[in-house]
Write a structure and sequence with these properties.
The protein is built from one helix and 17 strands. With about 230 residues, the protein is mainly β. The termini are far apart.
Length: about 230
């Protein structure tokens, strides 16, 4: 009888040890990736110019382009017929990209010059953004073969700058035309482990200054693992 009790106790100890090991491995496997890169934007004198938008004031604007990027390892890409009218503003002590003068849907993405992004699992995008008057932002990705996709997550901040987070494995994805920036058919389970570019898309044209429809993309952070190009 005593031997039987000792045997059961030993088996219980072994099972507890195995369970602890499995839980530890799961914890490691589910650990969130560290911050891979961030972008805070800047206004460059070389970017001063006049947008083509009829909503523009007579003043010169800081036009969005590579000169707005502060991180030398990142490349800014703008999509849409009127993406050249995206401007660089300062609000609340931060610099942001503003779509109010862009007379077409536009997408704003960042690309790491050295690495692809593994956006699978617990990878996430964190950003400070603002939307106004029914305008929304959606996450957008670009695959290595050039396919662009827009996520089903809809971000509406009702005129306030808010910090938002985007996960990538928990939403539906749809093809996005990189020229017209319009949504196409569904994409079944895109490979999130190898992403070329990531950012946001606004599927509406900007409404100009004041209480109109527009969006701002301020500080951007990517928590992901790098995959060498």
């Amino acid at each position: 009888m005593l031997a039987h009790v000792r045997l059961n106790t030993s088996l219980l100890a072994i099972l507890c040890g195995v369970l602890f090991t499995l839980l530890s491995l799961e914890s490691v496997a589910q650990e969130r990736p560290a911050l891979l890169f961030q972008e805070t934007w800047q206004q460059a004198e070389s970017a001063l110019g006049r947008p083509s938008s009829p909503h523009a004031s007579p003043n010169q604007y800081y036009l969005a382009g590579q000169s707005a990027v502060t991180n030398n390892n990142l490349e800014l890409n703008l999509y849409g017929f009127k993406a050249s009218d995206i401007t660089v503003y300062e609000h609340e002590g931060r610099v942001d990209l503003w779509t109010g003068l862009a007379g077409s849907p536009v997408a704003i993405t960042l690309k790491s010059r050295n690495d692809y992004l593994d956006l699978s699992g617990l990878a996430k995008l964190r950003a400070i953004v603002r939307t106004n008057n029914l305008h929304t932002l959606h996450p957008v990705i670009k695959l290595p073969d050039g396919t662009m996709a827009v996520g089903s997550q809809s971000i509406d901040t009702h005129g306030a700058f808010l910090t938002v987070e985007v996960a990538f494995d928990n939403q539906d994805w749809y093809a996005l035309d990189p020229v017209e920036v319009v949504v196409g058919s569904a994409i079944a389970e895109p490979d999130m482990s190898l992403i070329d570019e990531v950012g946001f898309v606004n599927l509406s044209s900007g409404g100009g200054h004041g209480n109109a429809g527009w969006s701002n993309v301020s500080h951007v952070e990517i928590f992901a693992n790098a995959v060498s190009r």
